[in-house]
Design a protein that fits this description.
heterodimer, A: 365 residues, alpha/beta, Rossmann fold, CBS-domain, six-stranded mixed beta sheet, four-stranded antiparallel beta sheet, 15 helices, 24% strand, elongated, B: 220 residues, mainly alpha, MetI-like fold, 0% strand
């Protein structure tokens, strides 16, 4: 599938006098992806972000938003068409949450009825009660304020969202929650998001692709797994030890599923086809008519019999979902002292299992 | 000489001369209202203007600071040769005194609006006028209002001096009371002036609280 490019930077630079803050950065961001820009402080990531909506004009190069050169667009119109979320949130303290959310709509002079409806819709989208609309920002916690910040950025339904360290000002637990909410939200809104952070964990978690910046230059672009395999010394130092484990957070269990398992329907006799699938796998799975996993029985218990003794079937360990991260799956295995876990779809179908080996071979591969 | 206790003299004066002190109080209020209008209309835009330019700001605040240190009677000394006596020079003198806190508070109020709010508004596509009217002025408003309150309350006391430049007000009652050693008149004028000043100050303070609440600056 060829994805449309929403934002493109062509050799974009920013000088302050002799100082090259951003140096010949080229990148493109596809429609519907979360592109993370990361780097040590002063690397030019925020400047790069702010050049996209022209809060900071670039010195040279070309910036295209939906194929149009930003210098040819009215900066006010450009910014109204791009959602913007900043670190310190910037909710206006004198306005109610409703007026904060609809700020862009007020600037665009939408009618009042539509503003009210949109505010109701958005506050629910970000998971806050409608009654909060009449409150002032200071009555909300940091995490709640940040949710309002996201709602505000979404008000005019922009295709593109710029997020500048959006979760930098909240505590780690709230931050993780907000990250997960963003990902969940993104499944339905499918915006093109450019996300600046200095937190590698966060980058791995939310980023479809990650660009690492250093001293104004973009040193690499890739997925989390590409990044953790980089040999470059700066990148290795920057992402830090244990980065690979963070990257595990971004890979869904679905990619490590073993599904060529010996499975037999309840009550059916074991045939050679099923037994031939066992290989070095010593368990046989029993499913019911709806393909729900009833349990498993080890080959040693069968002892050559063709009929399965219900007494000897062991119940499966608590299952995981195909969308769970490998990190979560491995964690569950360690907690439960298991070598594998069944994977069950939302509808309850038995999809297969993930094991330590299947996770490991994915990483080595 | 003393036949009646003080409170009775005061009471007699208040009852018998209600017309006179009433009109003097009204003139006093008019002086304050007009000078406050001038002060707000000129002071707020000036404060705004100088908040945009550091050199202009320092120059303007410097000049006003100097004007502010001139005693009011000396200021009359400058104004009488220029504009004669009457309401006009009195209003100008009052405005010069009142404008200082308004200009200063407007400037400081605008300056202290956190850059993050302006950047957020800018990033959402607010133009300059929208940033000014929807972000900067509302956020600075409590500080600006505090300056206006100071100016109004101060002009209540300064307006007492207006009598020296030929403008009527509560100063007239106090001055006549002093010169004629009319105890009842003197004390009535003083008490009336003090009471109205305190009352206006309370009223403005109450308004200020309301404003802060409205603008989400304090817990409701």
């Amino acid at each position: 599938m060829v994805e449309a490019i929403e934002v493109e930077l062509q050799s974009v630079s920013k000088f302050y006098g002799e100082d090259k803050v951003v140096d010949a950065v080229s990148l493109h961001v596809n429609q519907g992806e979360i592109f993370v820009l990361i780097g040590p402080s002063g690397c030019g990531k925020t400047t790069t972000l702010k050049m996209i909506n022209q809060l900071i004009p670039h010195t040279s190069g070309r910036i295209l938003v939906r194929g149009k050169d930003v210098t040819e667009l009215d900066p006010v119109e450009l910014r109204r068409s791009i959602g913007y979320v900043i670190q310190y949130i910037g909710l206006l303290p004198h306005l109610t949450i409703r007026d904060n959310i609809t700020f862009v709509l007020q600037l665009k002079k939408y009618n009042k009825k539509m503003q009210r409806e949109r505010a109701m819709e958005l506050i629910e989208t970000v998971g806050l009660p409608v009654s909060y609309l009449d409150r002032h920002p200071r009555e909300l916690s940091g995490g709640q304020q940040q949710r309002v910040g996201v709602a505000r950025a979404l008000a005019a339904d922009p295709e593109i969202l710029l997020m500048d360290e959006p979760f930098g000002a909240v505590d780690p637990i709230t931050r993780e929650q907000l990250q997960l909410e963003l990902l969940r939200l993104q499944e339905t809104i499918k915006k093109t998001i450019i996300f600046v952070t200095h937190d590698m964990q966060e980058a791995f978690k939310v980023g479809d692709r990650i660009g690492i910046m250093r001293g104004g230059r973009l040193v690499t672009i890739g997925t989390a797994m590409d990044i953790v395999r980089e040999r470059d010394e700066f990148i290795r130092n920057f992402i830090g030890q244990g980065a690979i484990f963070s990257a595990l957070d971004t890979i869904p269990a679905a990619r490590a599923i073993i599904d060529d398992l010996p499975i037999v329907q309840e009550g059916a006799a074991l045939d050679d086809d099923v037994l031939s699938l066992t290989g070095d796998w010593e368990n046989i799975f029993i499913v019911d008519g709806q393909r729900r996993c009833l349990g498993y029985i080890s080959l040693s218990e069968i002892k050559g019999q063709r009929k399965i003794d219900r007494e000897k079937v062991t119940a499966c360990p608590p299952p995981c979902r195909p969308g769970d991260s490998l990190k979560k799956v491995i964690e569950e295995m360690l907690w439960g002292n298991r070598a594998w876990l069944p994977v069950v779809s939302e509808e309850g179908y038995f999809l297969g299992i993930v094991s330590f080996q299947s996770c490991a071979s994915l990483l080595v591969g | 000489m003393r036949t009646n206790p003080l409170w009775m003299n005061v009471w007699n004066y208040l009852v018998s001369k209600a017309d006179f002190w009433g009109s003097m109080l009204a003139s006093h209020f008019m002086l304050v209202v007009w000078s406050s209008c001038i002060v707000i209309i000129l002071g707020v835009p000036l404060g705004l203007l100088i908040s945009r330019n550091k050199r202009l700001r320092d120059a303007v605040l410097g000049v006003i600071g100097v004007l502010y240190t001139i005693p009011i009677l000396a200021l009359f000394g400058f104004l009488i040769p220029l504009m004669g006596i009457g309401l006009k020079p009195a209003l100008i003198a009052l405005s010069i005194y009142g404008i200082m806190p308004v200009i200063r508070n407007t400037c400081v109020g605008i300056e202290q609006v956190s850059a993050s709010f302006k950047e957020a508004a800018d990033g959402m596509g607010a133009n300059r006028a929208q940033i000014l009217f929807r972000v900067e002025l509302p956020l600075a408003f409590p500080v600006i209002f505090a300056g206006i309150r100071t100016a109004i309350v101060m002009s209540f006391s300064v307006a007492t001096y207006a009598v020296f430049i030929g403008a009527a007000g509560m100063g007239t009652i106090i001055l006549i009371g002093m010169r004629t050693y009319n105890e009842g008149m003197l004390v009535s004028g003083t008490v009336l002036l003090a009471l109205t000043t305190v009352l206006v100050d309370r009223l403005l303070g109450w308004l200020e609280k309301g404003v802060q609440k409205k603008f989400g600056m304090v817990e409701p």
